[in-house]
Write a structure and sequence with these properties.
Elements: E1 19-32, E2 35-48, E3 52-56, H1 63-70, E4 79-86, E5 89-90, H2 96-105, E6 107-110, H3 124-135, H4 140-153, H5 159-162, H6 172-185, E7 190-194, H7 202-219, E8 222-227, H8 230-233, E9 239-244, E10 247-252, H9 254-259, H10 264-267
Parallel strand pairs: 3-8, 3-9, 6-7, 7-8
Antiparallel strand pairs: 1-2, 1-4, 4-5, 9-10
Protein name: ABC transporter ATP-binding protein
Family: Belongs to the ABC transporter superfamily.
Subcellular location: Cell membrane
């Protein structure tokens, strides 16, 4: 049974023209043996073109489920209500074909484990070039040159050599930067990165965050950077939204949220003051 549906409580106010992701009153309920679980409760936020929004909150606060709902990646048994617009397109309640087109063309998603996004049997150059060829009218040779250029932009050393390597030949941090290069090639309007540095050594976290900044600069996309550790991303976001128990409880600048949090316990990360 499909219980995913779109519900609206009347007209949604129109957002400014440069808002590329407009989430309104988004809620997600899972059914379990113990009864319904309200994982996301009435989340509303907007992100503008070129802006970086951090979504922070302790583990289990609903950060991933919120973005999975936007991307249409939740199990069909999840009940999703509310609205999420990417540019002028409502994405909640879309069918599989329509939402996968949005994922391919408008939103790029970057997960904690880069291997979920990379195909082990193709070289990284092939995978980047495929994304380039889908979005630009270029020859294969030009797509390969663009792949080398993108590897360089995300900070991969020796891109001419690396381009012919397979995902398993790269370190975790490099793989994540390849995923970001593919996102760039897709020329998205929104990049959602869910804990992109969590599985990586502290020494390479900064490189991945810099690669995300390069992607944002290059494409002009809005970046939604999801993390349980505000300390890690503090220098890389313009604004922060804090989630707690499925709700978005506060938004503000990094300074506001870090040094004057309205709900300090909501962060669950007071040990990570920079
Ligand atoms: P986080 O903020 O750590 O990303 P999540 O968004 O993953 O948290 O999870 C929010 C809540 O939803 C948690 O209680 C989690 O156990 C629950 N949850 C996540 N995915 C599912 C699912 N597919 N089925 C049932 N419950 C889920
Ligand atoms: Mg998560």
């Amino acid at each position: 049974m499909t219980t995913t549906e779109h519900m609206s409580d009347g007209p949604v106010p129109t957002a400014g023209h440069d808002v590329v992701l407009d989430v309104r009153d988004l809620s997600v309920t899972f059914s379990s043996e113990d009864g319904p679980l309200d994982a996301v409760r009435g989340v509303t936020y907007q992100v503008r073109r070129g802006e970086a929004l951090g979504i922070v909150g302790e583990s289990g606060s609903g950060k991933s489920v919120t973005s999975m709902a936007i991307m249409g990646l939740l199990p069909r048994t999840a009940r999703v209500t509310g609205s999420a617009r990417v540019l002028d397109q409502e994405v909640i309640g879309l069918g599989d074909a329509a939402i996968s087109k949005i994922r391919g063309e408008k939103i790029a998603m970057i997960f904690q484990d880069p291997l979920t996004s990379l195909n082990p049997v193709y070289t990284i150059g092939y995978q980047i070039a495929e994304a380039v060829l889908t979005h630009r009218d270029v020859t294969k040779k030009q797509a390969r040159e663009r792949a080398v250029e993108l590897l360089d932009k995300v900070g991969i050393p020796n891109p001419e050599r690396r381009v012919d390597q397979y995902p398993h030949e790269l370190s975790g941090g490099m793989r994540q930067r390849v995923v970001i290069a593919i996102a760039m090639a897709n020329d998205p309007d929104v990049i959602i990165a869910d804990e992109p540095t969590t599985a990586l050594d502290v020494t390479v976290q900064a490189q991945v965050l810099e690669a995300l900044e390069a992607a944002r600069r290059e494409t002009g996309a809005a970046l939604v950077l999801i993390t349980h550790d505000l300390g890690v991303v503090a220098g890389h976001v313009d604004r922060v939204a804090v989630m707690y128990a499925g709700r978005l409880v506060e938004t503000g600048t990094v300074e506001d949220v870090f040094y004057r949090p309205r709900m300090p316990y909501a962060l669950g990360l007071l040990g990570s003051v920079p």
